[in-house]
Amino acid sequence: MGQYQAQNNRRYDPEAIARYYRYRPWLAFWRACTIIWCFAGFMLGLYWDKWQNREEQNKFRRATQLRQILTRLGPTFIKVGQALSTRPDLIRKDFLDELVKLQDQLPPFDNAIAFRTIETELNRSIQDVYSEISPHPVAAASLGQVYRARLHSGEEVAVKVQRPNLRPALTLDLYLMRWTAGWISPWLPLNLGHDLKMIVDEFGTKLFEEIDYLNEARNAEKFATNFRNDLRVKVPAIYWRFTATRVLTLEWIHGFKLTDTQSIREAGLDTDTLIEIGVTAGLQQLLEHGFFHADPHPGNLFAMPDGRMAYIDFGMMDQLSELTKETLVDAIVHLVNKDYTELAADFVKLGFLTPDTNICPIVPALEAVLGEAIGQSVGDFNFKSVTDSFSELMYDYPFRVPAQFALIIRSLVTQEGIALSLNPNFKIVEVSHPYVARRLLTGETPQLRRRLLNVLFKNGKFQWERLENLIAIAQADKRFDLLPTAQLGIQYLLSEEGKFLRQQFLLALTEDDRLHTAEVQRIWNLVKGELQPNRILNVALDAITEISKERTAAILPVVNAFAVFPKQK
Q1: Catalytic-role residue among 104, 195, 295, 339
Q2: Where is the ABC1 atypical kinase-like domain (predicted)?
Q3: Digit-coded pLDDT (tens) for 409-449
Q4: H or E element, residue 193
């Protein structure tokens, strides 16, 4: 394996991996036999229990057996188990309780090896780096284990040390997964198997990034920068002097895992508030920053005693382009508004459909399946219902899942699973819909303002009910303040860019040959509690002043240009 490592220099290269194992088929053969043997024995045990009517009696034994199998098969399979451990709606409780242990209760590797790795990577002795360090790891995960330590300067830190021989184990499993994906793709309905190899490659790329702790440290600092103004999200500080490729030293976080509901309640923390923080932070990552945590399982998320939520693992991250972020917002708007033709076009832009796909027959299918998933009440909506319903379309239409969106879907499903473990009656829309409404109403960018117009106007007519719904939904977000939104709105209306909206709004007030005083009255009843007359006047004056400043700044260069010419006698 040394030849592969030297050629790839820590990068995932599926072609190089395939070349390596092509000339060493016995390695892949024995690993494949081990995997098949483990799961075949497990499945036979389940069928035997059913045949002997001993399912209830042996259920805890089988759950323990599954965890032990995944642990024995190593990091790749542990990652699968971690993802399943966040889905109480998919996995029965006895299995779930065991899979949760895969998050940070895995068998540790030898301390002597870990301490030797620290000294080798940091090129100094343990005593030179830390004034004290725990004699045994406080947590062991799929890719490494963590020690609690203290620097000579007094700071309490977590020291993350990578497992030995990790790269060879990952490459072999990824090779087998990629080979299996290519073999089974033709047997799947339509193109459900399309890009399966690309999904494996995306997973492999992220795994190789995850085992580079210098990359993880950079990710943590970038994530912290994105949330620097959000006092509810905590990111641990990185100690770069004591960080290398296989050793990471970061600030120690005092808190409780999100699955430890008893400790969370004993600390007086509100689980619904924690859910709101987690879901809102997830939406910000996707729709605002574009830089998102692709592995948010409960072992990586902590509730702090002061009510903040802490992220502690930044190995598996991904970056969305500006176009993808904008198209995602479009897709959410079109889904909420039930504009299924536009939604189908969004799927083309996002790569779920190829550009040459005829979307005409797909539109009614989207309406039938997704319309039913959204339900009669917005409270019936959850992400799982959408993904389950959408999967039905994969059998009948040429949908595919782009490799990057496999990570996004995994992240969203995991976050919803965490929320369900805290509150089984949780509905993701109760948090996400107010967030999207608030984002549209604040409209701090031209792109968001255009999307707000798309929501408020349909077929040239102003949708009063949609504006009412947006305001009412946004007010469900405790952080939503209507006054700054009003100021932004007034500035936009008075600006050159808002000329079209001014015209459309005046037409809306008098369309259908009548004054829409009843609609205006309903909206006023919604906002009058927050918009006192004197505050509205101040906001209006501030907005006009801001517009005046912008216009003055625009003409000032012209005035100065004329001033430099000498006066003619």
Answers
A1: 295
A2: 101-344
A3: 777 777 777 787 777 777 666 667 667 766 666 655 666 66
A4: none
